Amino acid sequence: MARRQDDRIVETSTEARQGEPGPSVLALLTASTGLAILILGVIWFVFFRT
Known about the structure:
This protein is an alpha+beta fold. The protein has a domain at about 20-50. It has helices spanning about 15, 25-45; strands spanning about 5, 10. It has a two-stranded antiparallel sheet with strand order 1-2.
């Protein structure tokens, strides 16, 4: 368990790594990648399609 020492929180390396990226991280990555692909597709269609 974390303890305070000289006004600092002291944890072991295992305790410090306890946080997990949840499903919201995956959703954000998927949405931003999809949006980037869509924007690049629109730019290609407008400027480079002949």
